[in-house]
Amino acid sequence: MKYLPLLLLLFAAVQLTAQSTVTSIPNQKLINGSYVSNPDHILDESTVAQIDTLLKSLEKKTSVQVAVVAVESIGEADVFEFAQELFTTWGIGNNDNGLLLLLVKDIHTIRFHTGYGVEAMLPDVVCKRIQRDHMLPEFRNGNYSAGMLAGLIQVEKILTDPASAGELKAPEVKELSDWAALITVLVVFLLPVLLVTYIIKASKGRFRDSKRPDETPYPEMRMKRWSWLLEFVGIPILIVTLFGLSTIENPTGWCFVSLYLYFIGTRFHRLRRMKKVINRFLKIQDYYEIVEFLRKQQWYWFFMAVLFPIPFAFYFFYHLARKRIYRNHPRKCKACQGKMNKLNDLAEDEYLSESMKMEETLRSVDYDVWRCEACQSVEMWFYLNRHSKYDPCPKCKTIAYCSAGLRTIRSATYSSSGQGEETHACKFCGYQSKSTYTIPQLERSTPSSSSGSSFGGSSSSSGGSWGGGRSGGGGASSSW
After folding, report:
1. How many Cβ atoms are within 10 Å of 115's Cβ, its own excluded?
2. Which of 202, 221, 379, 461 has its CA 20 to 30 A from that of 42?
3. For bias kind Low complexity, which ranges apply (predicted)?
């Protein structure tokens, strides 16, 4: 009995030695480049070699780093906190795309701890399914090597082929993150734009039922207030709400797709209103007004073609073609109802004044001249070039007035602003006007705060270190 205290002390020392801590677990990546730390020899050597081959290939293909740790015990430590501390201490993963598999034998627990960069590909539910379906059955029979290898094969399959994860995902209850994403869509992207648009339209009387409606030659394009709110506010909110309540996979993505398709549908409603305007002018055969209307709509549909290329990229070219068709559409003489012909550029010069010819030369205005075959009556239509640099001349009214040059009167310095003079001239009548403008004071450039250059980069760590990754605590634990 005199040796009992010594035996108890020896037993306690053995037990203490068997308990691993974060600092006592050997980081084999630094020692020999291995991905497996197996200090208590829970995994057999041939399996460790297989795992190293698998994980080295995985890192080469995807840059994802996976660390495997198998220990007898971690004492009274919490497995989650232990995994988090170990993950952070080692810095597993390049660009935070690391994964830690921690097997603790005495408490019969396997822990997957994911880095920020792999949480999307290995969400908690997938980690749990891998453990339950592929690892625990082997662990229950004491086959730790087989169970660990089976789990890692599934991990490798998912990380190299994300579509494989779909087989492991079970229907999940809607999480708050889905709602947060959808509310972000509504509050950040939709409502501010729609609110500003509504305020502008209401303040300028651009609703059909406004108390003081703004005058417009196209009243058919106006919507009633309630109709606009329903189309652009009510229904989009309903779409976001329905997807927020749904249990489908990726509700945020489907919500975006549905809103995209819905707003395409609202543009077809606009086309229907445009058709009403065109039909009104067709009844009185006013093709000039149709062309002017289509010209005013042109930039709008260009923007729609950029925003919604399918189908409005095709419609935009149709819009341009339709504008040309109406511009050249056969028409009747207002005097005798006879047929009118559009004159070519050479023939129409007979009916243009010198001022008009100058405008055509400068491309500030394009004139169409139509002449009746029967009574020789002439009708003349003009189309302003909205992108021309020329303005109407204050003296002769010819659209040939533009900037003719700039001249510095007093140069700007670092202590005072300067003054310049701009000359405008009419290219038809020669009228000139001059105006002065202020040249901003010069500013001295501020030297960069760093005289040298520093470079950062990511390391592939194919040799002896991890990549400095971090984890937000994602993953799953299972016990048997």
Report:
1. 27
2. 461
3. 448-463
